[in-house]
Design goal:
Elements lengths: L1 H19 L19 H29 L6 H28 L2
Helix pairs in contact: 2-3
Length: 104
């Protein structure tokens, strides 16, 4: 029983250290369809993709904050600002196309 517990603790510590040293990565934003010509299913799929990307970006930003702790500034600050701007632009683009879709 003690060996099983020790093994579990060892595995958990490797998993935690792997997460702590993981590189912060972010995929490209999804493509937003043209609301004037898109089908409802296209807009629903785009909405899900945008929500998933926003959640992914928030995780990325948290990772960068963790990575940047104790550092005055540098590359992580630029990456943080760029990711925030991309997320805001994607949301604005989607909302614009959603308004176009609803106005048909």
């Amino acid at each position: 029983m003690k060996k099983a517990t020790a093994l579990a603790v060892t595995i958990a510590s490797f998993m935690i250290s792997g997460v702590a040293h993981a590189e912060c990565t972010l995929n490209d934003p999804p493509t937003v369809p043209d609301g004037a010509s898109a089908a409802e299913s296209d807009m629903v799929a785009a909405q899900k993709a945008v929500k998933a990307y926003v959640a992914e970006t928030q995780e990325f930003l948290a990772c960068l904050e963790f990575e940047g702790k104790g550092k005055s500034s540098g590359d992580w600050t630029k990456r943080y600002n760029d990711a925030s701007a991309r997320m805001e632009k994607l949301a604005a683009d989607f909302n614009k196309q959603l308004r176009a879709y609803k106005s048909k």
